[in-house]
Amino acid sequence: MSHVRQQFDLTGKVAIVTGGSRGLGLEIAEGLAEAGARLVICARHEQWLTPALDELRAAGHTVEGLTCDVASPEQVQAVIDRAIDRKSTRLNSSHGYI
After folding, report:
1. 3-state class of 62 per DSSP?
2. 71-94 in b/e burial notation, b at 16+ Cβ within 10 A?
3. DSSP letter (8 states) at residue 11
4. Nearest-CA neighbor of 45 among 34, 33, 53?
5. Would you give per-residue pLDDT tens digits along the chain (98 residues)?
6. pTM for the predicted model, two decimal places
């Protein structure tokens, strides 16, 4: 049996995590980063986003953050565009896969 990390290797991928600034979303972001993904996290409020970015970067993860209300198609598209600019994309939400 191959090692779990090899089965879930996300090296070279970019993951979007909505609600990635706290709670379950932050946990998901950490797990994806530990699997090798570069992150784009989003939150509705800058004051939630900044501490999460600082925490993830301090752990050595590559991460960008954007404020985004997922009820706004324009804001969601901006997040997706940023991730696409970063290369391959695996879209993930703390509420499930998109």
Report:
1. coil
2. eeeebbeebbebbeebeebeebbb
3. T
4. 53
5. 456 667 788 888 899 999 999 999 999 999 999 999 999 999 999 999 999 999 999 999 999 999 999 999 999 999 998 888 876 445 455 544 44
6. 0.80
Q: Return all residues near 56 (Cβ < 8 A) that are at least 6 apart.
A: 29, 30, 33, 39, 41, 63
The tokens for 24 are 């379950």
**Residue 74 — φ and ψ, nearest 5°?**
-65, -40
Per-residue tokens: 79 = 């997040």
- Name 81's Cβ contacts closer than 8 Å, sequence gap at least 6: none
Q: Is 58 helix (H, G, I), strand (E, B) or coil?
A: helix
